[in-house]
Amino acid sequence: MRLKLLKKNKTFSGETCFYEHASEVTQTNMKFSAFLPGDRSQIQNCIIWLSGLTCTEENFITKAGAQQFLDGTNTMIICPDTSPRGLNLPGEHVSYDFGSGASFYVNATSPGYCDHYRMYDYIAKELVSIIRSDFGAKKISIMGHSMGGHGALVLGLREQDTFVCVSAFSPIVNPIAVDWGEKAFHGYLGENKEDWKKYDATEIIRSGVSRKDTLLIDQGLSDEFLEKQLLTQHLVDVAKKSGQKVIVHFREGYDHSYFFISTFIKEHLEFHLKAFLMREAEIN
Amino acid sequence: MRLKLLKKNKTFSGETCFYEHASEVTQTNMKFSAFLPGDRSQIQNCIIWLSGLTCTEENFITKAGAQQFLDGTNTMIICPDTSPRGLNLPGEHVSYDFGSGASFYVNATSPGYCDHYRMYDYIAKELVSIIRSDFGAKKISIMGHSMGGHGALVLGLREQDTFVCVSAFSPIVNPIAVDWGEKAFHGYLGENKEDWKKYDATEIIRSGVSRKDTLLIDQGLSDEFLEKQLLTQHLVDVAKKSGQKVIVHFREGYDHSYFFISTFIKEHLEFHLKAFLMREAEIN
Q1: How far is A231 from B144, CA to CA, in rounded Å?
Q2: Which B-chain residues 217-236 have CB contacts (< 8 A) with chain A?
Q3: Are B174 and B200 in contact (CB under 8 A)?
Q4: Residue of A67, A123, A230, B240 with fewest CB within 10 Å of its CB?
Q5: Is the pTM of this model over 0.90?
Q6: List of residues 6+ apart from A48 with CB closer than 8 A
Q7: Number of folded domains in chain A?
C-alpha cells in the first residue's frame, strides 16, 4: 500500500493530489485524487467520492468545485478511479458501460473479472485502510454520482460501521431493473439475479436494511437518464415503506452533468461535515 | 453570425451554453461557451475569457468554478476557442504551441494562416459584435490565462474603447522575449520583429500606451513556466516606468493549473464586476 504521489497542485490553502498504488485487492495499480486541506495534521475526516461511468479519478476533483468548501476544515475528500486499468479482459474495453471505467463497485465473480474487478472490497477495505493509515482520518463518509451514486448508496447501506454519512447525485438506485445494471451485473456476477440484489440500493432497503441517519439525494428533473436508468422513485417508495429516512431534492431543469453537481455540491459537503460533527459529539 | 446552440446545462440559476457559428473573420466555424445568469433580459455586461495553449472553449467553463460568482448578477462570461479548427494548414497540427489550440490571438500575416488565424479581429470585432447583438451586453471586459492572459493584456491595452477592464492569470507578458512567443510570432507574423511588438503587452506599454485603470495579474510562484515563458517582472518594470497601474499578486506555492485559477477566480470576477459598476456610475 505504498502511495506514489504523481502530482500535486496547491488549491486554496490546501493541495489537490494525485496518487497511484499497487492494489492488493484489484491486483492492478489504482489511482485516486484527493484534496487535502491546508494543515494535514488537522485531518480528522474523509469523504469518499465515487464517480460515474467513463470517469476517472480526475473528473470530480477538476469540475465539481468542492475544494473551496473543504478548505480550512478538518475534512479531506478522496476520489478513486472507477475501475481497474491496464488489463485486457474479454470485452473490457468494448463499451462505455461495462469493464474499464464502469466497475459498478461490485466484487465480480465472473471468469477473468473475479480476479481484478473487486471494487466493492477495494473501496470498503483497501481505500478505507489507506485513508486511516496514510492520511490519518478517523471518520469516513461516502458520496457519488450516477454509477458512483449507486456505489455510495450500496456501500453506505451495507457498511454502516465504516461510513458515517451517505449521499448521492443522480444515483442508479435500482440497477437490477434497468439496462445499465442488467448488462453490468450479468457481466460481473453471472446469471443468478439473486446475487445481484446485494448491489442494489432499492433491494437492500427492501430486504430490511436501513440506516438510522438520513440519506441525501439530489436528482435533476431534466436528467436524460432519469426515466430509463436512474428510477429515483423506486428508492423513495421502498424507503417510505421501510422507514429509511431519505431526502430527495428533485431539481427542476438540471441534467446529469457536472454543472448540476457543481451547483449543489456545497449542500452535500455541508451535510457530510454536519454528520461528522454530530458523530464527534456522540463520541465525546 | 447566426449562432447555433450545441448544448446547454442549467448551472446555479443560469445556463452554461455551448455555441457554434460561421465566422466571417476566420472563415471557419468557431465555438464558444458562455454562462448566462438566470434572467437573460438582465444581462448588461460580458466578460471575455481567453484560454491558454491546448485549451478549447470547454476548459475554463468546466474547471474554474466561475458560474457561482456570476449567478444572480447582470454579467455573463463568454469563452471562445483558442484557434480556428477544421483546417489543415502546413504545420498547423504538429506541435502544441503553434497552430490549432495556439493562435496567440494575433492577426496572422503569413501565407495560409493569414486567411484564417485572425483571432485578434475575431475577438475584438466579431465576438464583441455577437456579445452586443445576440446577448445584449453593453459593457465588455477581458481576462485570460497564460497565452490567453497575453491576449487579454494586448487586446485590453489596444482596444481601450471596447474593454472596460483587464486582468490575467499567469500571462505571457513579453512574448517576443520567450520561446513560445518567438516560435508563434515567427510562424504567424514573419521575420520582422518590429511587427511582433504590437502583440506584446510589455512592448505596448513601453511604446507609451497605458490604460487609466489598473491591470490585475495573478501569478503563481511555483508556476513551471514563470522563469522561461511568462517573465511577469518585465511588465511590472515597464509599467512602473510608464505609470501604468498594475497590481500583481505573486502567489506562493501555486502553479500554472486551473487549480490555481479556481482559487483566485472570485477575486478577478469581483474586480471586473466592480469595474462595470464604476463605469455605470460614470455614465449616469
Answers
A1: 42
A2: 220, 222
A3: yes
A4: B240
A5: yes
A6: A77, A78, A79, A80, A123, A127, A131, A140, A141, A142, A143, A144, A152, A163
A7: 1
- Residue B43, min C-alpha distance to chain A (Å): 20
Q: A43 to chain B nearest CA, in Å?
A: 20
Residues in A closer than 8 angstroms to B9, CB to CB, are: 255, 257, 259-260
Q: Please give the Cα distance from B48 to A113 (Å, whole number).
A: 49
- Work out the pLDDT band at B166, boundaries 50, 70, 90: very high
Mapping DSSP to helix (H, G, I), strand (E, B) and coil, where does residue B139 land?
Answer: strand
> The C-alpha cell of B115 is what?
486567411
The grid coordinates of residue A124 equal: 470498503
The whole-number average pLDDT for the span B258-270 is 98
The verdict on whether A207 is a catalytic residue reads no
pLDDT of residue A49: 98
Structural domain harbouring A219 = 4-283
Catalytic residue check, B71: no
Q: Flag whether residue A262 sits within 8 Å of chain B, measured between CB atoms.
A: yes
In angstroms, the separation between the Cα of residue B1 and the nearest Cα of chain A is 27
Q: Which of residues 11-30 of A touch B (CB under 8 A)?
A: 11-12, 16
Closest partner residue to A263 (CB to CB) among B11, B62, B255 is B11
Residues B37-75: tens digit of each pLDDT: 988 899 999 999 999 999 999 999 999 999 999 999 999
CA distances to A75, A148, A273, B270 from A70, rounded to whole Å, are 6, 20, 9, 22
Look up the CATH number of the domain holding residue A231. 3.40.50.1820
Q: What is the mean pLDDT of chain A?
A: 97
Asked whether the CA dihedral B22, B23, B28, B30 is positive or negative, the reply is: negative
Window A:236-255, CB contacts with B under 8 Å: 253-255
**C-beta of residue B104 within 8 angstroms of C-beta of residue B188:** yes
Q: A1 pLDDT band (50/70/90 cuts)?
A: low
pLDDT of residue B101: 98
Q: What values do phi and psi take at A104, rounded to 5?
A: 60, 10
Percent of chain A with pLDDT strictly greater than 70: 100
Residues of B in contact with A222 (CB under 8 A): 10
| Degrees, nearest 5: CA angle A157-A161-A163 | 60
